[in-house]
Amino acid sequence: MRRSWKMALSGGLRCCRRMLAWVPVLVIVLVVLWSYYAYVFELCVVTVANTIEKVIYLTVYHALFAFFIWTYWKSIFTLPHQPHQKFFMSYGDKERYENEERPEVQKQMLLDIAKKLPVYTRTGNGAVRFCDRCHLIKPDRCHHCSVCSMCVLKMDHHCPWVNNCIGFSNYKFFLQFLAYSVLYCLYIAATVFQYFIKYWVGDLPNTRSKFHVLFLLFVACMFFVSLMILFGYHCWLLSRNKTTLEAFSAPVFLNGPDKNGFNLGFIKNFQQVFGENKKLWLLPIGSSPGDGHSFPMRSMNESQNPLLANEEHWEDNEEDGRGSEVLSRFGERIYSAYSPQAMNSLMEILKRGYANTGSHEPEILSWSSDSWAF
């Protein structure tokens, strides 16, 4: 009896928490509805006298309003994506992991499971990223949201203003929502300002519309400043292909932490969120590439470079001459990628660098352009 009472109380508290989570969304909706009434009726219908001006104001306003509401809706009701079933522990692995008391053995068990999965990030101490609440190996950039009680692919943050987790499935919509919100507030402030001045100096009669127009400008400016700061921050994150969580804590890869591990350059970073189809960039329609489980990394792009791929690491050994053999093969790859003129220019730059530092020049810098023809 006592146990059932506790379960009922816990369920009631969870229900209350879910309802309270919608309060910020309700506040935004009420403010937007009031702004619609104040702008359309109190400003355009009652205050603006010129018919052409009314038509222009209302046409542009409703276009921005439609995109603003559309992106806000998508940000709220696009569910965050969870990892694929293959990342979850099997029942047998889960039992063995929980029954094992030695941390080093548990760590090895996770490493063995992760070998079959496309995961390249680790914890700070080099262990496989594992969620002990969802019992799964976390894909790269995946994190557990304590509010949603689940792991979210490419989680950015949990936003109370949309009552949803922002991640792989809806980050594009969230950015668009911020952009159209900024434009919405800026447009209202710009078109209301002249009538605000007229009411302020007494050129317009002191009617009920005065309160709405004055307060509309104040609210639009207030939201514009706060939204512009948030939008600017996320534009900076987008340009570096980072999430909010990665900006605070750099992802750790197999070779250590790298704050720019997913940075592919501005254009490719942008396409990682908005896709390559330019027709969909302004529309809240899903176009992000991939499935949210794995992402291209800067280190992988470098490994695909013909000059960096399959580099053979060697030590100077004068007795067996292996160093010169490897150097010769590496020179062949360089020569196949660049012309002799380009190589001579590169040699001159390296020589000046050694001269400035006072270091001894390696023998390779004394080769002539003919020496590069293998």
From TrEMBL:
Enzyme class: transferase
EC id: 2.3.1.225
Residue ranges of every copy of the Palmitoyltransferase DHHC domain listed in the record: 129-248
Catalytic activity: L-cysteinyl-[protein] + hexadecanoyl-CoA = S-hexadecanoyl-L-cysteinyl-[protein] + CoA
Membrane-crossing residue ranges in chain numbering: 20-39, 55-73, 177-201, 213-233
Keywords linked to the UniProt accession: Acyltransferase, Membrane, Transferase, Transmembrane, Transmembrane helix
Pfam families: DHHC
Domain of life: Eukaryota
Domain notes for this protein: The DHHC domain is required for palmitoyltransferase activity.
PANTHER family assigned: PALMITOYLTRANSFERASE ZDHHC16
Family to which this protein belongs: Belongs to the DHHC palmitoyltransferase family.
Protein name as catalogued: Palmitoyltransferase
Organism: Monodelphis domestica
